[in-house]
Give the backbone structure.
Amino acid sequence: MKNTQLLNSLRYALFGALAVTTSAVQAESIAITNATVYTVAKQGILSQATVLVDDGKITAVYGKEDVPESITADTVIDAKGRILTPGFIASKNLLGLVEVGAVSHTRDSSDKKADLTFDASLAFNPKSTLIAYARKGGITSSLVMPYGGEKVFTGQSFGVNLSGEFDSVIAAQNAVIVSLGASRKGSRAMSLQTLSNQLEDAQKSLTKAEKAKASSKKSKKDKDSKEAKPPSRSEQVMYALLSGEKPLLAYADRATDILALLKLKEQYKLNLVLVGASDAVLVSEEIAKANVVVMMSALDNLPSSFDSLHNSLGNVAKLTEAGVKVIISNSGESHNINQLRFDAGIAVANGLENTTALAAITANVADTFSLNTGRIAVGKNADLVLWSNDPFEISSKVDAMWINGKVMSLKSRQDALRQRYTSDTTMPRAYTK
């Protein structure tokens, strides 16, 4: 009898352990109800809406009239009318590559030998203390853009989520970066000429390779036929540019440089993104006609050089009005990226529509760089932020955040330090009298 009871106890314990293991492996399903949802999608803004999440993806988005009578989920969260937005996507920064700008040993964003094959994502640190700090600004993803080396092509950007996990690089080598414009030594013409020449050479090489491949197929039975030489790493990147597979992120401010880039885009069918683009307002019609995206700061209102004499707080609104798709980026490098929402708010204060500003830091980035986020829509990654109020208001804060459906901590190192040095404790009062 005792042996039977012992055996049954072991069975129950085993079944219980299996149940715990199974529930841990399965992703939690979430229902966020009674929310004001800014979908940045066809559904627009929904009041008293419900968003369902399962296995890290958004599985349903219901407006007030469409909400089912009963909702089944592991966790149900009543938003109480608060605003739910897609997680913001930062861009043009060094997050995870630079911890302290003044300390050389913490900088992995550049190298003198770097060229268009430079893949800085290999050095990305998902445990950087700055990632949790960025999350406090509603940022769930980032397009990291290294400085590279001293050549025209400075490397490739990469996309990450801000989960802090070791697998948080979600899009390595997803765009090629080129730096043009004024130079301390030499002429800007050389940079443009180098870019043009490399594109031309790559186009000729690609055409030659395609002909050789076609010829090889025709003479497949010929034992003496030679196989085409495989392309080098640099050639592979250039071919990806020419096919439109990878965008070209081009730093350029002066209108003449922008127009030269537009000609190259038309000639080689490039997927061009202008970065900085202070003079873009002077040639906005040409940019819109060419269907080129502009990545710029909404805060640049003073000239930093003779190339940026047309900086203005109203530039984002002016470009958008002209039909240009704009990505709002800030100049946080690796710090203060969490202030991206304030940059978008300043653009709103200077003529940009609120929903357009939201798209400029979510959907526009995701669409341009093929990231499965940036919208609250079925099938998208569940990168969501619940706000205390309007996210573009300085007094608002993040009440809750999910990345791939997983709840994120909103506590940063700065919060821990504040708690440490302002709380009553038996430990010595550091840095205080």
In short: Residues 1-25 have pLDDT under 50 and may be disordered.
